[in-house]
Design brief:
This protein has 370 residues and is of the alpha/beta class. It is built from 12 helices and 13 strands. The protein folds into 3 domains: 1-103, SH3 type barrels; 121-266, Rossmann fold, CATH 3.40.50.300; 279-354, Probable gtpase engc, domain 3 (Ribonucleotide Reductase Protein R1, domain 1). Bound molecules: guanosine-5'-diphosphate, magnesium ion and zinc ion (ZN). Zinc ion binds at residues 293, 296, 301, 303, 306, 309-311.
Length: 370
């Protein structure tokens, strides 16, 4: 048995496919229960991963929490098959082991560029993305566009949260700047320290819905979580989000339940977010550029120095911001490079898997021949 933070060794199970209120509050929907067989519903319990630490995860069924150590077999799989924060899992009969990971409704990934490119999971089953930025020089359209592409790719609804309105002379001007990159984008202007300014923001965190917060360090994500939760859940001022070398770490990610229902996930470590495998999302976020591109003389126009480029003509006439086109081209390039690297990596992994299998098959043949 692994160490267990609660007395009751047996979290409530879903009986005969009926959802209990606690699990519904935790975000369980038919999308997940439909994945379960009758046998599974009878034998196993459902729980949600609320926290991921280096060697173990915390799961909850809405009433009890348990700590579960991931066995080594989980680490033999690629990161995308390991549980991440927000995942729904089936626990075995003794509630000490993960039987199965349920199919995700959405997943945030991060492409980490080390010696070789690697995909890491940030969170799963997010409904709404709070893109947090502040009403000061930190505000940057290009960063917002990057986050918007991420939201579009994962089918998660974005909401722009503009913090530090109390410190800004003209907070409303930032709303206008958001409108310029997406006319329909919902915007909330807040003082993250003042609960009274958060009623509009609160409305996005409905009972049973899961909201992830992304944004640069220091914009007020943890402050927002604390204010919405009504008590201190997160250290603020970026103390906990950095390791000794001052780098962001992703070792501590956790879901916070709000008193009025709803779950919040403060996501540290999105700073080096790279885009990959989201070409359709880029076309969506930059739909103005994408639709103009149909009028370019060349089908594969890069909108750089090709003759007859309708996009550059629009920049020249002031219809499209030069910055926006620059960012679009940058993201498209980054996206295609990273996507190619990921494809290569998958290919290598498949080859590796095949050679291991071939080796085992050969061994088995020899063993039976013997
Ligand atoms: N005046 C003011 N300060 C804020 C606001 N939001 C955050 N802060 C402060 O900014 C600092 C960084 O906030 P924190 O929540 O740690 O940012 P995080 O890195 O995004 O989690 C803290 O000192 C907060 O008190 C705001 O809306 N108004
Ligand atoms: Mg923080
Ligand atoms: Zn063009």
């Amino acid at each position: 048995m692994h160490s267990c933070p609660v007395r009751n060794p047996r979290p409530a199970i879903i009986n005969s496919g009926k959802l209990n209120a606690e699990l519904t509050d935790l975000g369980l929907t038919p999308f997940f229960t439909q994945q379960l067989s009758g046998d599974e519903l009878e034998q196993y319990s459902l729980a949600r991963v609320t926290e991921v630490q280096r060697s173990h995860i915390i799961v909850s069924d809405g009433i009890h929490e348990r700590s579960i150590t991931l066995g080594s077999t989980w680490y033999q799989q690629s990161a995308s098959r390991r549980p991440t924060v927000g995942d729904w899992v089936l626990l075995n009969h003794a509630n000490e082991k993960i039987q199965r990971l349920l199919k995700r409704k959405s997943v945030f990934r991060r492409v980490a560029a080390g010696t070789r490119i690697e995909v890491q999971l940030i969170a799963a089953n997010i409904d709404t993305l709070f893109i947090v930025t502040s009403c000061n020089e930190e505000f940057e359209e290009s960063r917002l566009e990057r986050y918007l592409a991420l939201a579009a790719e994962t089918n998660v609804d974005p909401v722009i949260i503009l913090t530090k309105a109390d410190l800004a002379d003209e907070a409303e001007s930032y709303r206008e700047r958001v409108r310029a990159i997406g006319a329909d984008l919902p915007v909330e202007i807040v003082n993250a320290l003042d609960v009274d300014s958060l009623s509009g923001t609160k409305a996005w965190v409905r009972r049973g819905s899961t909201v992830a917060l992304v944004g640069s360090s220091g914009v007020g994500k943890s402050t927002l979580v604390n204010s919405l939760a009504g008590r201190k859940r997160m250290d603020t001022g970026s103390i906990r989000e950095q390791d000794a070398k001052g780098r962001h770490t992703t070792s501590y990610r956790s879901l916070h339940r709000l008193p009025g229902g709803g779950l919040l996930l403060d996501v540290p470590g999105m700073r080096e977010l790279k885009v990959a495998e989201l070409d359709t999302a880029l076309a969506e976020v930059f739909s103005d550029i994408d639709s103009l591109a149909e009028q370019c003389r060349f089908r594969d126009c890069d909108h750089n120095d090709e003759p007859g480029c309708a996009v550059r003509a629009a920049v020249a006439s002031g219809d499209i911001d030069a910055r926006r086109l620059r960012n679009y081209r940058k993201l498209v390039l980054e996206e295609s490079r990273n996507t190619a690297s990921i494809a290569e990596q998958r290919q290598r992994d498949r080859q590796f898997g095949k050679s291991i299998k071939a080796h085992l098959d050969l061994k088995r043949q020899r063993d039976t021949a013997r």
